[in-house]
Amino acid sequence: MKIIPHGAAREVTGTCHEVQVGSKRILLDCGLFQGKRSEAAVKNAEFTFDPAKDIDAVVLSHAHMDHSGRIPLLYKNGFRKNVHCTYATKDLVEVMLMDSGYIHEKDEEYFCKHLAKSKMDCKGPLYTQQDAIDCMEVFQGENYENWFDVCEGVKAKFIEAGHIIGAAMVILEVTENGETKYVGFTGDLGRNMLPIIRDPSPMPPVDILICESTYGNRLHEDISTAVDHLKEVVVNTAKRGGKVLIPAFSLERTQEIIYDLHVLWDKKEIPGISIFVDSPLATKVTDVFMQHPECYDKDMYEQFLSKAHNPFQFSLVKYTASVEESKALNGTPGPIIIMAGSGMCEAGRIRHHLRNEIEDERNTILAVGYMANNTLGRRIVDPEITEVKIFDEMYQKRAEVVYINAYSGHADMNDLDNFVSDTEGIKKIILVHGEMESMQPFADRIKKSKNGVEIFMPEREEEIII
Ligand SMILES: [Zn+2]
């Protein structure tokens, strides 16, 4: 057996790990590289294998684009075998890939109009919405905790990852030359106690563990603090008659905030102010959430389903669809809450709301997700910066800015340490999906706690022979 990372090797995007068993070749995920446009475009455009001939199956951990976003390209290049994933992931991926196809089309249009030096640079979008629709025919839904055949000599099973709805860790049972080995792949490892979804399942004994390491050197705020913090922001802003603007990722974070606001409203801990979800993508994703109660945790059943209560629909929440409805929010007086994408404020309707509301000191901008370097979101949460550029104009940051980082969907360093120490049988551990600065300290801790385990931190295309 060989394992070759084609992405997410000493970086956090582009997850795609090949497992070779005899003549069979399987991909664990096939995600987009994100980050600087010019660098990501080169990495995204090329496969180091022939998708039509070389790959026998894809096993997909979850619907985030950095794990699933190159599947339409795989299909466009002739791949016609199965992509196995959970049922919820299959439905989510359909919505997310369509959106991704749209973004690639628009991005290319803008690039060719404003940035390209010559027509030669305009090679067409990476893939289109139509490519995203076409590739759905190869997706195969699977139940959690259920072994399925991947190809000759390889079976697989999904277990709960506790990261986003439908997310799974993958266990491969690999039989080669009469010998059976188990490979565990974390995908993105989640956390205990996140709203809506179940906690991560323990990993059964595996011989080889491919483990993410995003936060190998960082601790998160306790998730239990998030809802109190959210309440405080809503109550204080409402007292001032202001608007709470929440830039939120459409997948998972938006639904978690709606869920927490619903719980707070049921307990009458927040005032009855309107909550606008101003993102067509988030609305579509929320529909998928409603179709997959099999992924919900016990609290969700006790708080909502057992009372025939829909967690995502209640008297205060309104999903805006048209651009006119979105624009009308500008004239709607506070107190209100507006949630819109994109999460890092680089695109989407949130930019319009920020432009209209950032200079009003009654308002609050509530950041609930990671803001990468060089994004508008990062400049907004940076206390050193007092004015920001939105649509080419400078605006004073007069609104209050609050950052709640407790909602992170990723395991932190303690969670990762506990996960590895609780997993039995590991002989080799391959660290992926992390920058070196978070991977190295994680590796050092494993070395101390797991005597004799061989640790790898491969570069892209580096072959690990098992
Ligand atoms: Zn993820």
Describe the structure.
By secondary structure, the protein is of the alpha/beta class. The chain folds into 2 domains: 2-218 and 409-465, Ribonuclease Z/Hydroxyacylglutathione hydrolase-like (Metallo-beta-lactamase, Chain A, 4-Layer Sandwich), CATH 3.60.15; 224-403, Rossmann fold (3-Layer(aba) Sandwich). It has 14 helices and 22 strands. The protein has helices at 37-45, 65-68, 71-76, 87-115, 129-135, 226-239, 253-266, 280-290, 298-303, 323-328, 350-357, 376-381, 413-422, 436-449; strands spanning 2-7, 16-21, 24-28, 57-59, 83-86, 139-142, 148-151, 154-160, 168-176, 179-185, 208-212, 243-247, 274-277, 317-319, 336-340, 364-367, 387-390, 393-396, 400-403, 428-432, 454-456, 464-465. Strands 6-5-4-3-2-1-22 form a 7-stranded mixed β-sheet. Strands 7-8-9-10-11-20-21 form a 7-stranded mixed β-sheet, with helices on one face. It is globular and about 70 Å long. The mean pLDDT is 95.
Largest sheet: 7 strands, mixed
| Tally of alpha and pi helices | 14
Q: Count the strands?
A: 22
Number of domains: 2
Poorly predicted tracts of residues: none
| Helical proportion, percent range | 25-40%
Rg, Å, rounded: 22 Å
Structural class: alpha/beta
List the topology elements:
Layout: E1 2-7, E2 16-21, E3 24-28, H1 37-45, E4 57-59, H2 65-68, H3 71-76, E5 83-86, H4 87-115, H5 129-135, E6 139-142, E7 148-151, E8 154-160, E9 168-176, E10 179-185, E11 208-212, H6 226-239, E12 243-247, H7 253-266, E13 274-277, H8 280-290, H9 298-303, E14 317-319, H10 323-328, E15 336-340, H11 350-357, E16 364-367, H12 376-381, E17 387-390, E18 393-396, E19 400-403, H13 413-422, E20 428-432, H14 436-449, E21 454-456, E22 464-465
Parallel strand pairs: 3-4, 4-5, 5-6, 10-11, 11-20, 12-15, 12-16, 13-14, 13-15, 16-19, 20-21
Antiparallel strand pairs: 1-2, 1-22, 2-3, 7-8, 8-9, 9-10, 17-18
Helix pairs in contact: 4-5, 4-8, 13-14
Residues 62, 64, 67, 163, 188 line the site of zinc ion.
